[in-house]
Amino acid sequence: MIILRGIQTKFISLAKRGLATSSCLRNVDKQIDDILTKDSEYNSIAESYFRLGESHKCLVIQPYVKWGPKKITSISPEEQLNEAAALIETLPKWSVVDSIAIPLDTLERKTLFKSGSMDKLTNLVNTTHISAIFINVSNLKRIQTGLLQENFKKPIFDRYQIVMQILKLHATSKHAKLQVALAELYYVARKAQKSAMFKTSNQDALKLMFQSREQKLKSAINDLRSQRALLRNKRRKMDYPIVAVVGYTNSGKTSLIKALTGDEGLVPRNQLFATLDVTMHSGMLPSGLEILYVDTVGFISDIPTNLIECFVATLEDAVLADIIVHVEDLASSNFDFKRAHVLSTLKDLSKQTDAPNLMDKVMSVGNKSDLVKKVQNDDVIAVSSKTYTGLDELRMKLEEAILKATSRQKITIKVPNGGDELRWLYKNSTILSEEADSQNSQLMGCKIIITSTNLQKFKHYFVNTK
Ligand SMILES: Nc1nc2c(ncn2[C@@H]2O[C@H](COP(=O)(O)OP(=O)(O)OP(=O)(O)O)[C@@H](O)[C@H]2O)c(=O)[nH]1
Ligand SMILES: [Mg+2]
């Protein structure tokens, strides 16, 4: 769901003009609630894969391919382990007790690990007080999970399960809940269809149940998408420049928008996937031009594609923005890896959504500059959302880019004092300053920002006709 937040008075004025969504979405609300809560047969199957209520002390294992084409060179196993631990720590009541990286020659082995590594891990499991094992690969095969569980006598989780649990916990809006439910359904249906339960129960009925749930979820998501498209058109008509803020999870997107807008409704959190809703926040550029910042869902590497696809819809607003601010965490040890991941996701998005000029709209902002001694990257605008350093420079650069991207121009225009022209300009442009003309007191000199279309209209109404 798109939620519009901003400085309160602005929120009210924007909401009155039809930008807030709640009333538009009310009619589909009940239908969505039913899909999410009343499907008891599905819910009881899904619960067996996701253990939201449990608390766990985890051993985190990072398998990594040591050589050959499958070897990952862009991020070290230690850095992967750090990210894996951050995922676990994001779940309330889950903690990391120990972590270990294990070299492999392939990820395809039935037991995943060779016997030597298996012995080493069994010893570690038996001598450490843990209640579960998180193996940081995107998706374990059912046979791998089964054999590892049998060997270690502890529940085994893969990355998909952990990310899904975080998403389930953090999804608050209907739209986010529906998308998470769809991502979960793909996982549950695939696992259930391969399980013993599926072989012994009425397979056709189970398949039908999954298919019907998928259809209901997709249709509800499509309804919401149409609502969003309507809202987008409304916003376009109102001509607010839009700045989408994207980036790797935890880079500080929400914090940056909060620092730029002063919006107290925003709550940055030191968690992965803290933001799962696309929200809008009004802000002002140095000239007084009002813009909307769009907060978005963070990116993360190594997530199964159907999980990503579910979130592409939420990024539609980003794709259609006038400028895309890419927030990067300057203090992150794997800065280059994260940058490459976000840029390649944006490139994919540009292809999928048929937006060929998407990459031209990207502006790189290096956040958390307060945590580094020296900013190494010359190609970013360095800021700190914590100390507010660099924000004025960022606003200036944004203004420059927005004026260019939205064909707006700053001009000075002379209009009759108190006339229709002035009233029209108040409605259709941003007035930066106005002062009486020194040579003719009947005239006002107005410095304005106006779109090319509105300038044409102004000329048509007030210049050509006279
Ligand atoms: N020191 C410092 N910490 C920051 C800065 N900006 C954000 N943080 C911290 O970084 C963490 C993540 O911030 P968020 O703004 O929630 O990050 P996000 O990119 O919106 O994260 P997701 O919504 O989870 O993708 C929080 O603990 C913030 O307080 C900064 O400039 N300096
Ligand atoms: Mg956020």
UniProtKB/TrEMBL annotation:
Keyword Metal-binding belongs to the record: yes
Residues where GTP binds: 247-254, 273-277, 295-298, 367-370, 384-386
Key words, A-Z: GTP-binding, Magnesium, Metal-binding, Nucleotide-binding
Location of the Hflx-type G domain: 241-406
Binding site for Mg(2+): 254, 275
InterPro entries to which the protein is assigned, alphabetical: G_HFLX_dom, GTP-bd, GTPase_HflX, GTPase_HflX_N, GTPase_HflX_N_sf, P-loop_NTPase
Record CDD domains: HflX
Signal peptide feature range: none
GO molecular function: GTP binding; metal ion binding; ribosome binding
Keyword presence, Calcium: no
Necessary cofactors: Mg(2+)
GO terms under cellular component: cytoplasm
Domain of life per record: Eukaryota
PANTHER family noted in UniProt: GTP-BINDING PROTEIN 6-RELATED, GTP-BINDING PROTEIN HFLX
The protein's name in its UniProt record: Hflx-type G domain-containing protein
